[in-house]
Amino acid sequence: MGKVAAQIKVMPQSPDVDLDDLEERLADALPEGAEINGFGRDDVAFGLVALLPTVIVADGAGGTEPVEEAFASVDGVESVEVQETGRL
To answer: Which end of the chain has a smaller Cβ tally under 10 Å, C or N?
Structure first.
C-alpha cells in the first residue's frame, strides 16, 4: 500500500486563535498512521490566517477522512477542507 500527501486547509474560529498552539493541538489529534510533514499559513482576510498542514496518510480505505474528522474536532477549528492530494 502506498502513501498519499494531502494539503489540508484548517480555518481557525477567529483571528484571536493562537496558531502555534493550534498547530500543536492538530498534531496531537492525528489518528494513528498519519503524520504531519510541515505547516504553511495563508492570510485569508481581516487578520484571519488559515493553517495549511501537509499530512501523509496510507493510501487505503478512508483516505484523509479520519484526519479531517480529527482536525474538525479540535477546539478552535472552524472548518477543514482538503486542498490538494497526491501520491508519494
So the answer is: N
What pLDDT does 61 receive? 62
- Going from the C-alpha of 27 to that of each of 3, 38, 47, the distances in angstroms are 18, 10, 23
Say which amino acid occupies 64.
Answer: T
Alpha helices in 8-81 (DSSP H): 19-29, 65-72
Q: How far is CA 8 from CA 60, 71, 74, in A?
A: 18, 10, 14
Q: Which H or E element spans position 5?
A: strand 3-12
Low-confidence spans in the chain with pLDDT less than 50:
none
End-to-end CA distance of the chain: 11
Element (H, E) at 69: helix 65-72
Cell of 35: 503524520
0.70 exceeded by the pTM? yes
